[in-house]
Amino acid sequence: MKKFKIFIRGINCLIREDEKPPRKFGFYTTAFVEAPNAEQAEAIAVELLRNDPKLSKACENDASDPPVIKVESIDEIASFDGCKLPRMGLALFEEGT
Predict the structure, then answer these.
(1) Are 6 and 73 in contact (CB under 8 A)?
(2) CB 33 within 8 A of CB 85
(3) For residue 45, what is the enclosing H or E element?
């Protein structure tokens, strides 16, 4: 199995802050997965985010307007040393600003 570092951008996430009405946010994160090839690594990383309970709970989208997850880059790496598995960080940004 090969090791991959996958940079991901999410968009169209309807998130509520405090008592304010929900707004659309996007995010960036980096996932680290093992897979036989880059295509399967991408699928695993996207599924990892779709099944993330914290992210799912934060997004209030209904089924007709779901969040969108896009892989920006996939790099094969030698090891996971220094990496937080299965992913590192989540940087949010407000869409349209």
Answers:
(1) yes
(2) no
(3) helix 38-50
* Contact residues for 42 (Cβ-Cβ < 8 A; gap 6+): 6, 71, 74
Instruction: Please name the amino acid found at residue 91.
Output: A
pLDDT tens for 13-37 read 999 988 889 999 999 999 999 999 9
Instruction: State the pTM of this model.
Output: 0.88
Q: Are 42 and 28 in contact (CB under 8 A)?
A: no
Token pair for 35: 């897979």
Which own/partner pairs from 34-39 qualify as long-range (CB within 8 Å, at least 24 positions apart)? 34/1, 34/2, 34/3, 34/4, 35/1, 35/2, 35/4, 36/1, 36/2, 37/2, 38/4, 38/74, 38/76
Q: How many CA atoms lie within 13 A of 87 on its CB side?
A: 22
